[in-house]
Amino acid sequence: MPRHLMNPMDLTVEEIQSLIDLAGDIERDPDKYAHACDRKTLATCFYEPSTRTRLSFEAAMYHLGGHVLGFSSADSSSAAKGESVSDTIRMISCYADICAMRHPKEGAPFVASLKSSIPVINAGDGGHQHPTQTLTDLLTISSLKGHLDHLVLGLCGDLKFGRTTHSLIEAMSRYEDVEFILISPPELRVPNYITEMLGKKHLKYTEVQSLEEVMPVLDILYMTRVQRERFFNEDDYVRMKDFYVLDKPKMELAKKDMLVLHPLPRVNEISVEVDDDPRAVYFKQAQYGMYIRMALILTLLGIEV
Amino acid sequence: MLNISGIENGIVLDHIPAGKAMDLYRYLHLGNVDNQVAIIKNASSQLMGKKDIIKIECGLDEIDLDVIGFINNKITVNVIQDGKIVEKKRLHHPKRLTNVIRCKNPRCITSIEQELPHVFVLTDKATNTYRCLYCEEKYTRH
């Protein structure tokens, strides 16, 4: 039975550490891995558009010496003819060794994994899970801070609908002495089940509205975009999207070694003037996204270098 | 006093909360069975004040006890043979339900792939929480 990845919490802390260690080794010595996936093929089955995730999966496979095939929208696949995900994956299993699947419907990659004879990676299913983003975030924090424990993690923006923040909170809640500061307007507060989970684990968390107020205590600031498609009313969206804008004056309040992360794409929640600040690591984060996907592909294929 | 004749062989579902018998009737698809089914609504009960009762002339294997456990595990299931109660079944919240309830999440894969079974799993025993196997949406009764 192939091993799949559907949810970041499917991985134990030890398994995540192994992936982080492997990604670190790939970053240090990429040549060592340049032919690790010779004659292996990754299928990228993207039923909805994506820039970063699809390209980083493809880049990851190319950097491992492998091949890539696939489609980048449902219109260009047989889904447009009404083929089920189960049938598509059975066909893909004949052509590829591993599959990364993004689908607008929640649970679609899981359905694929039930019928697949090759490993399936969930590359994002609606508002549900996006495990490789969480792994990217963990690798970024671990690589640039040197550890995942003993941190004050601030998450700012849309904490209600943002799946990346929910997954990151769950993943980080497994490390010792991590304090969460949840910064959002009242309308976009984190769902109850997240604060209940933090409460059950006796973890320290605070919900605040003011970003300026908490800037000095943060070790990590995870900014998020307010997504237009989540709002029924354009006025509400416009009001929310301008609620937090990280700019130079706010960065001056922060610690010298604080890090700013963002899953990207950003709209206006981080001013471009912040990009040159060495603490702004969101583009570096995108690079880590490729390394962790390389590590994941190798691990799921059982390839050791 | 209304008298309903007892059944010779079958099951009696007792201590159904008043007003819930028809829900159970639907979940158990009793409308499709040819056997004798009696529904008693608002029977007086020392324990509950009022209760509903369903009597079904059938074999035990013809009724999905998991469905009853899902709806209310306090319901008593009396197994009747030759007109006598021979067993009282204890019910549990089932770990998994297939095609009993449907996922209402419009973003769930089951909303577009009609042939997929609707599967829910018990994710929290303490709160009796069921979530869709695919999208993990919490099941809410209303």
Task: Describe this structure as you would to a colleague.
The complex is a heterodimer of chains A (305) and B (142). Chain A has 305 residues and is an alpha/beta fold. Chain A folds into 2 domains: 134 residues, Rossmann fold; 154 residues, Rossmann fold (3-Layer(aba) Sandwich). Helices cover 38% and strands 15% of the residues of chain A. Chain A is built from 11 helices and 9 strands. In chain A, the strands form 2 sheets. In chain A, strands 7-6-5-8-9 form a 5-stranded parallel β-sheet, with helices on one face. In chain A, strands 2-1-3-4 form a 4-stranded parallel β-sheet, sandwiched between helices. In chain A, helix 2 links the parallel strand 1 and strand 2. In chain A, helix 2 crosses helix 11 and helix 3 packs across helix 4. Chain A is globular. The two termini of chain A are 22 Å apart. Chain B has 142 residues and is mainly β. Chain B folds into 2 domains: 80 residues, Aspartate carbamoyltransferase regulatory subunit, N-terminal domain (Alpha-Beta Plaits, 2-Layer Sandwich), CATH 3.30.70.140; 37 residues, no CATH class. Helices cover 10% and strands 35% of the residues of chain B. Chain B is built from 2 helices and 8 strands, in the order E-H-E-E-H-E-E-E-E-E. In chain B, the strands form 2 sheets. In chain B, strands 2-3-1-4-5 form a 5-stranded antiparallel β-sheet, with helices on one face. In chain B, strand 7 and strand 8 form a beta hairpin. Chain B is elongated. The model of chain B has no long low-confidence stretch (mean pLDDT 89). Chains A and B meet through helix 4 of A and loops of B.
